Amino acid sequence: MNRALAGGLVLVGVAGAGVVLGLLLVAPGGGSQPEPSATPPPPSRPTTPSAPDEADTAAVAVLARAIVDAIARHDSAAFGKLTCRPQTADALARLQRMWDAAGPVTVKLLEPPDLRGESATAKVHVEAAGGVKDTPFPLHKENGRWCVPG
Fold first, then answer.
1. Long-range residue pairs from 79-84, CB within 8 A, at least 24 positions apart, any chain
2. Cβ atoms of 20 and 119 closer than 8 Å
3. Distance CA 146, CA 118 (A)
């Protein structure tokens, strides 16, 4: 795979992963333990994880598809609109130069995005003349909007 394309995908993946890791590291702790009481609490029922909200599932699927489309079309401006924070013109121009240098690519989702609360991961598979690259794109819900952190 072209080094420029691979480098661009790695930078985007690392930046997103760094943001997610940073969010996990600075999240507030679990709080204090309750005081023991003379009466034990009633036995708790086993809980099952709730299914993801249908609206979030649909929004994450649309975002993942938009990532794939932006990469396939080498459209850095479209990709920039998918990020949680506005991208500088310089950052988008660097990304565009890398994508242009990569030449034709084939891009697809490896599987449906993995949704966990207000975070998700979309695994994107890219094939180019220089090789193959699978990149897990972290996704995050921010102010009611799903986006790519970074």
1. 79/148, 82/147, 82/148, 83/147, 83/148, 83/149, 83/150, 84/140, 84/142, 84/145, 84/147, 84/148, 84/149, 84/150
2. yes
3. 8
Q: Which residue has the higher pLDDT, 51 or 34?
A: 51
Residue 81 and residue 79: Cα distance in Å, rounded?
5
Give the span between the Cα atoms of 67 and 83, in whole angstroms. 10
Closest CA relative to residue 1, chosen from 136, 145, 131, 149: 131
135 token code pair: 């990149």
List, as one string, the DSSP characters of 92-118.
HHHHHHHHHHH-SEEEEESSS-EEETT
Q: Which amino acid is at 43?
A: P
Pick the residue with more confidence: 54 or 30? 54
Of 21-30, 45-54, 79-88, 96-105, the poorest mean pLDDT is in: 21-30
Q: Is the pTM of this model over 0.85?
A: no
pLDDT of amino acid 44: 55
